[in-house]
Specification:
22 helices, single chain, mainly alpha
Length: about 450
């Protein structure tokens, strides 16, 4: 399976540099084959959602008499997302090879005397490592945190872990250039990442502090401090700084690449992952080990992408067909009316993301549909404000979307219903998206 996915991604990325018709068509054919081969191995939720979109897409093709010969081309619409999923393990691997995860993990074991302190440390680790390990941060932090909660009541333990991991992770994704929702938003609104970054960083830090204030209620719960140490403080600080410097440099590299080659943001991030990871491995003198380890991880991760391939390529097919019809204007007309009252539009976007996430829609699918609907109002409504609302509303589902992969993994680890995990974080998720809306409105009023 990984061979087909890799062929699809490779041909698609080649078509970006050499946009000849046969290569675009060939890429689409591989996309169709990928969906066909992945379908039986995908989970039922992803199969049902993708089937619905593809059936409606084929129906629209027949109704509007669109050429069936062009079907493969339509499967390229969301190929960049699959490309990012395929290549991301190469960046994730450098964290393990450089032992940054182990060093940052020591932060959890420094002079921690009660559960509020453990919450701050765990949340910070989730925040720092999350942007590099992605969903891998969930079991990574869980393994350490769970050991310190063996004497606590099951209900409190589950709420504590679900809040600590998912909130810290969601807050780091808000400004991460590797987060697909961030990249999609930038490409949809045409906003510069560097213009968004200061606001997203401020949002992220403010809400991280708010979450830590809320965690003060755990101060009354003491934990065993035997075996803890403070001898790694300098090493931990050094590794955190190095990690953040590499991230900042990655942002600079992506921005320069985008400027000189005129690609969109998500494509620029995707294309820079492998060369930047190799450069990183060279600078820490671990290139040989990195190449061996990253290829092993890449093979394993790529072979498990069936759900994403089925979902995103199927929905991409539908959106491509929709753009060929006049139906898109019926989707856009209500949005144009809502755009006359931005606060109502922003609140509707907030509610849509959380509501659709709770009935099984992936936030990337919601983002793709909303992205098409809001095109006529971009420029009428401040694109910077719109971008902040889309990012914060979309990422609120990371902690309060029962079908989101992060919530699903957490529910498995805690042996708890995913809806219960979402409920633990629902109030904070609403605060999360509402704060984004407030900042967006503030920008509109000031500027």
């Amino acid at each position: 399976m990984s061979v087909i996915y890799t062929g699809f991604v490779a041909s698609y990325l080649m078509s970006l540099f050499y946009p000849c018709n046969w290569l675009i068509y060939f890429s689409g054919l591989l996309g169709m084959v990928s969906v066909a081969l992945s379908f039986s191995k995908a989970s039922n939720l992803f199969k049902r959602t993708s089937s619905l979109f593809m059936i409606v897409g084929f129906g629209l093709m027949m109704y509007y008499d669109l050429s069936l010969v062009d079907i493969p081309v339509y499967f390229n619409r969301m190929a960049i997302m699959i490309s990012l999923f395929v290549l991301l393990p190469f960046l994730n691997s450098i964290i393990t090879v450089g032992k940054y995860d182990r060093n940052v993990n020591k932060l959890l074991k420094l002079n921690t005397t009660d559960l509020s302190q453990l919450y701050y440390r765990g949340s910070l680790v989730s925040y720092i490592i999350g942007m590099f390990l992605n969903i891998g941060v969930v079991p990574f932090v869980y393994q350490v945190i769970e050991k310190n909660l063996k004497d606590q009541a099951a209900y409190m333990k589950k709420r504590y872990i679900a809040s600590l991991i998912l909130r810290g992770y969601a807050l780091c994704l808000v400004w991460s250039p590797m987060e697909i929702l961030v990249g999609l938003t930038i490409d949809i609104t045409g906003t510069s990442y560097l213009h968004l970054l200061p606001y997203l960083l401020a949002f992220s830090i403010i809400l991280l502090m708010v979450d830590w204030l809320l965690a003060k209620k755990y101060k009354k719960y003491e934990i065993d401090i035997s075996g803890q140490t403070n001898t790694y403080e300098f090493g931990i600080l050094k590794n955190i700084i190095i990690l953040l410097l590499y991230l900042m440099f990655f942002i600079i590299v992506v921005s320069l690449f985008r400027y000189f080659f005129d690609f969109d943001f998500l494509t620029s991030v995707t294309l820079m992952i492998v060369p930047y990871a190799v450069f990183w491995a060279l600078t820490i003198k671990k290139l040989r080990f990195y190449l061996k380890y990253s290829v092993m991880v890449w093979k394993r991760k790529t072979a498990t992408l069936q759900n994403y391939v089925v979902l995103f390529l199927g929905v991409g097919f539908f959106i491509s067909i929709l753009e060929e019809t006049e139906l898109l204007k019926y989707l856009q007309e209500p949005v144009i009316e809502l755009g006359k009252t931005p606060i109502v539009l922003f609140l509707v976007i907030q509610i849509m993301f959380l509501f659709l996430a709770n009935i099984g829609f992936h936030p990337l699918i919601t983002m793709a549909i909303i992205g098409e609907a809001i095109q006529p109002i971009i420029g009428v409504v401040n694109p910077l404000s719109l971008g902040i609302v889309l990012i914060t509303s979309g990422l609120s589902t990371v902690m309060a979307g029962p079908y989101n992969i992060t919530v699903s993994i957490t529910s498995i680890l805690l042996d708890e219903n995913p809806y219960k995990i979402s409920l633990y974080n629902l109030k904070f998720a609403l605060l999360f998206s509402s704060t984004g809306t407030f900042i967006a409105l503030l920008i509109m009023w000031i500027f």
